[in-house]
Specification:
It catalyses: uridine(516) in 16S rRNA = pseudouridine(516) in 16S rRNA. GO terms for molecular function: 16S rRNA pseudouridine(516) synthase activity; RNA binding. InterPro entries: PsdUridine_s_RsuA/RluB/E/F_cat, PsdUridine_synth_cat_dom_sf, PsdUridine_synth_RsuA/RluA, PsdUridine_synth_RsuA/RluB/E/F, PsdUridine_synth_RsuA/RluB_CS, RsuA_PseudoU_synthase, S4_RNA-bd, S4_RNA-bd_sf. Responsible for synthesis of pseudouridine from uracil-516 in 16S ribosomal RNA. With about 230 residues, the chain is an alpha+beta fold. The chain folds into 3 domains: about 55 residues, Structural Genomics Hypothetical 15.5 Kd Protein In mrcA-pckA Intergenic Region, Chain A; about 90 residues, Alpha-Beta Plaits, CATH 3.30.70; about 80 residues, Alpha-L RNA-binding motif (Alpha-Beta Plaits, 2-Layer Sandwich), CATH 3.30.70.1560. It is built from 6 helices and 13 strands. Strands 5, 6, 7, 8, 9, 10, 11, 12 and 13 form a 9-stranded mixed sheet that branches. The chain has a 4-stranded antiparallel sheet with strand order 2-1-3-4. Strand 11 and strand 12 form a beta hairpin. The chain is elongated and about 75 Å long. The mean pLDDT is about 90.
Length: about 230
């Protein structure tokens, strides 16, 4: 790989900015100062450093779990709020894609990768990877309303604007305003729309897990790479 391209990928500097730091003598390759942007480097075996700090680029696919806090958008370009990739310190953020986006006000497990086939397997209903949501409702639901909701969710609900009912899902009530919903699909605003079907409104929503992946050991805003075993289970 050309050295200027390597630096750009490793730092997110532009190619022009990469050339400037090279011309300033700030880049070494295998302990030698290099100012030639066209020099080809081995991304695995050559040691490239900027002001004494090692640089590296991704040589394979990345699989990342983020504990998304509220106030961040699951988009690639910021609109009204900061974007979730700002919370992750890895190179080449622009190549990451999200498996199952969360609303700005929703917290919880978010999987990202640059492996498109893997992301499809995570999100496709055909693979039946359950997602568990914890929700808070605006209005209390008594035992009769809870029983009706549990039964209807298990049967499938035809939401307004849809042509097919939701896939059977599991709804468990913790108390009159708190519940846990397990889904194997991801329709647009599905959890909120399902609760709206029962005349209620979701005031807080948290995705606790995706498949076998949960947020154990992470705080809001934290992230980690998945292990090879975790990746393979999808």
């Amino acid at each position: 790989m050309r050295l200027d391209k390597f630096i750009s990928k490793a730092t997110e500097l532009s190619r022009k900015e990469s050339k400037k730091i090279m011309h300033a003598g700030e880049i070494t390759v295998n302990d030698q100062v290099v100012k030639d942007p066209g020099l080809h480097v081995d991304v695995i075996n050559d040691e490239v450093m900027w002001a004494g700090e090692p640089l590296s680029v991704a040589t394979g696919n990345r699989y990342i779990l983020l504990y998304k806090p509220e106030g961040f958008e699951c988009t690639l370009k910021a609109k009204e709020y900061p974007i979730v990739t700002e919370l992750i310190a890895v190179p080449e953020l622009g190549s990451l894609r999200i498996a199952g986006r969360l609303d700005v006000d929703t917290t919880g497990a978010l999987l990202m990768s640059d492996d498109g086939g893997w992301l499809h397997r995570v999100t496709s209903p055909k693979h039946e990877h359950a997602k568990v949501y914890e929700l808070t409702l605006a209005s209390p639901m008594d035992s009769d309303a809870q029983e009706k909701a549990v039964r209807k969710v298990a049967e499938g609900i035809l939401l307004e604007g849809d042509y097919e009912p939701t896939k059977p899902a599991t709804l468990e009530f913790i108390d009159e305003t708190h519940a846990r919903l397990t889904l194997e699909q991801g329709k647009y605003h599905q959890v909120k729309r399902m609760m709206g079907y029962f005349g209620n409104r979701v005031t807080e929503l948290h995705r606790a897990s995706i498949g076998h992946i949960n947020l154990d050991g992470l705080e809001k805003g934290d992230s980690r790479f998945l292990t090879p075993e975790e990746v393979a289970k999808f």
